Amino acid sequence: MAEKVCSHHKSKKKKILRRCCAGLLIFNFIILFLILIIWAALQPKKPRFTLQDATIFTLNVSAPNVISTTVQVTINSRNPNNRIGVYYDKLDAYATYHNQQITYYTVIPPVYQGHKDVNVWSPFLYGNNVPVAPYNGLALSQDQSNGAIRLTVKLDGRVKWKVGSFISGRYHLHISCPAYIPLGNSKNTGIIVGNAVKYQLSQSCSVSV
């Protein structure tokens, strides 16, 4: 008789555990489903970036495999969302030439970007005697002789999304801005600013999150 009572209690406990597990699964499913519905209703969009201009202070090859660069760029960032804010926790800006980094990282201070807000950043990108592949040094000298160079300004960092009082986890953000700069040719749009030359670009950037 005692064995029957024990087996009955065990069976009852198993049923309670199954119900609890099923309840938790259903609850989690409902929460995830609601989050998906809210996210779809808000229609989140990635921030949009534009490279407005580049001011060249220094860009030369001191040896076949050594490049020195001092460039100030102006980057426009726009949040196209109506109900979603963006926290830029960390952003590093730098320049590349033929997929090789030619400046050090320049840190852009953390900032919050509200709905439909626009932020403008103007970081200096430095690189003194940066070693590069010999063919890139030769290519840069050749591009300067031909009257145009093609750099890429990049920003890497982390962002968080804000919806009401909810703040998401961190997401990686990668921005790539092509900068085609005509130097000393008939289509030159450079403006002399002290010992530098400023070029208006207004080129859209690609964004991946």
UniProtKB/TrEMBL annotation:
<protein>
    <submittedName>
        <fullName>NDR1/HIN1-like protein 1</fullName>
    </submittedName>
</protein>
<dbReference type="InterPro" id="IPR004864">
    <property type="entry name" value="LEA_2"/>
</dbReference>
<dbReference type="GO" id="GO:0009506">
    <property type="term" value="C:plasmodesma"/>
</dbReference>
<keyword id="KW-0472">Membrane</keyword>
<dbReference type="InterPro" id="IPR044839">
    <property type="entry name" value="NDR1-like"/>
</dbReference>
<dbReference type="Pfam" id="PF03168">
    <property type="entry name" value="LEA_2"/>
</dbReference>
<dbReference type="GO" id="GO:0098542">
    <property type="term" value="P:defense response to other organism"/>
</dbReference>
<keyword id="KW-0812">Transmembrane</keyword>
<keyword id="KW-1133">Transmembrane helix</keyword>
<feature type="domain" description="Late embryogenesis abundant protein LEA-2 subgroup">
    <location>
        <begin position="74"/>
        <end position="177"/>
    </location>
</feature>
<dbReference type="GO" id="GO:0005886">
    <property type="term" value="C:plasma membrane"/>
</dbReference>
<feature type="transmembrane region" description="Helical">
    <location>
        <begin position="21"/>
        <end position="42"/>
    </location>
</feature>
